[in-house]
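Researcher: Re-running this chain for the archive, since the previous output was lost when a drive failed. Same request as before.
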Amino acid sequence: MRRVSRIAVAGVATASLAVALSACGGSSTDASSGGSAKGKGIGLAYDIGGKGDQSFNDAAFAGFQKAEKDLKIGGRDIEPQDGESDADKVQRLEQLAKSGYNPVIGVGFVYAPAIKEVAAKYPKITFGIIDDDQDKAANVADMVFHEEEASYLAGVAAAKSTKKDHIGFIGGVDIPLIHKFQAGYVQGAKSVNPKIKIESQYLTQTPQEGGFASPDKGKDAAEGQIDAGADVLYAAAGLSGQGVIQSAAAHKVWAIGVDSDQYKQDALAKYKDYILTSATKDVAGAVFNLAKSVQDGKPATGVVRASLATGGVGLADSNPAFKNNADLQAALKKAEAGIKDGSITVKTS
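Model: Regenerated structure tokens:
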């Protein structure tokens, strides 16, 4: 069992998402054969925090569900364990590959070493990894995103929405991937107001310390930034971001979600009036598209990069207060056009 600290409402979502896993069709793969191109369907291994984070992992789960439904294939998804090692991840991926699932996808950069090892053992299986492009193998798809572009737009939205010219950024873990979110956000905000004050904080130095999986840490960080005067908070922190949203709602300030459209997440419904927007990336689409490429007999491999130009990242507009703000929307339209035509180069660090 994962022993992850969650806000109470997240447990409801987790329960509703804990569906029975199907393993329909096909036969298990003989490990000695190196795998088979015709498998049981999609195999998905979750990142830290697991299903029910209303963010990154749940976006991957949405793609998994869509693949099962639209492609009429089987599937199996597996949760992470507390304090696990790379060897544990290797075992999880091998379990999926040996059982005949194809593609096998690791959700998150933490799977990079495991994907590299297991993909070499099963050359006929297509492997995918989200948020990492280190594994250059003929049977690996590196699915990465220009998170900094969506974060730039989030920064513009924050700077246009603050009443105090004071905003905040909360990163889950102090790593280069999350630095991209911060860099884009800061740059976007300063494009609106060069003198804007920006609080910045990382919850932990390593993923193992719970930076992506601890709503209580997110809540504490948000309380500190709100006390300091910030009235718009952007969290790139996975499950920990739920605590940020909870705190923002309690203090009646804006939160900006991440990865999924968090305004529309059932477990966050009671806080949605304070979720201005979310910087989204189409993890669901990446998962689905890889499964479809395998089914079509033309498996995607190499770096598959999503950006504003491809529609792979963006800002959600579910909140009417965001969507109907004409001044804000005009500023975002101008910023998006600049990023797409290259007149704005978004920083990644």
